[in-house]
Amino acid sequence: MNIKKLLLLPISLVFSAAGCAGIGPNASYYMGTTSFHYDPSYSPYMVKLNGSEIGGGGGGMNTSLVKIGPQTITWKDAKTGEIHSAKNQVIITKEQLKGKKYLAAHLYPDDTVEVTTSNNWPNPTEKGSKWLNQLKK
């Protein structure tokens, strides 16, 4: 191993540790991201978190940069192209992200959004499953 590699190794470890720790007021984390949708009247696509596409349907997953603080979540209706956006203010805290691997955006029929984080593959929320079952009847 040459001297450059030996010098770069500790420096790169420091920077990667700082990124994982989410240091600073605009801390961000790389996480697996997906979304769940509970309105059977249309299919969403192009679900975006702060302008970056995330996975969909609980089966598609992207690796996305997730920042703490207020979020902008939008998606499109696959049939009409109509753009939907979260009616509620979604705020992600450092505590929600710290030590977690996955983030899921849950898109409810009233265009509100709930964000969940986990260390295992995300699942639909109980609230969303109940809503979906009621709308399918």
Automatic annotation (TrEMBL):
Keywords: Signal. Residues 118-137 are annotated as: Disordered. Residues 1-21 form the signal peptide. This is Lipoprotein. It comes from Acinetobacter johnsonii.
